[in-house]
Specification:
With about 140 residues, the protein is an alpha+beta fold. The protein is built from three helices and five strands; from the N terminus they run ββαβββαα.
Length: about 140
């Protein structure tokens, strides 16, 4: 038997759907594809254009890509909108072209994916879970 709950507007939804959407909303600017990959894109300020940031194996990698792009496009005006405000690469700067922003964000996300996939293999050996991200991972 499936259970359901209602939100403050009285809309009913399956608890499984609620759990799935809450896990997807852990980080800003990302979403999960049906087949399990995590993707990120961001709107370019002042235009209707969206900038594709890539597809990643982990939500953390997609979130870092979003953070890099957000910072490069909008600056440090709103650090509360970043997923990891203390972890931005040294090369991330305001005023980059959208193409440069896309490359920097993609490189950062791929570096995190690589780092986390290495961590998962060592995690299986040690039995501990960790997320060790540093600025050098982006460069």
């Amino acid at each position: 038997m499936m259970s359901s709950s209602s939100d403050e507007c009285g809309n009913y939804r399956n608890n499984d759907e609620a759990a799935a959407s809450s896990s997807q909303n852990k980080y800003k600017g990302i979403r999960r594809r049906k087949w399990g990959k995590w993707v990120s894109e961001i709107r370019v300020p002042g235009t209707p254009e969206r900038l594709w940031l890539g597809s990643y194996a982990t939500p953390e990698a997609a979130a870092v890509a979003h953070d890099v792009a957000f910072y490069c496009l909008r600056g440090n005006s709103s650090p509360k909108n970043l997923n990891f405000p203390l972890v931005l690469p040294a090369g991330a700067r305001v005023g980059m072209s959208p193409r440069s922003v896309q490359k920097a964000a993609s490189d950062a996300g791929l570096a995190i994916d690589a780092r986390l996939s290495d961590g998962k293999s060592s995690q299986r050996r040690s039995g501990e879970e960790y997320l060790d991200i540093s600025v050098e991972d982006y460069l």
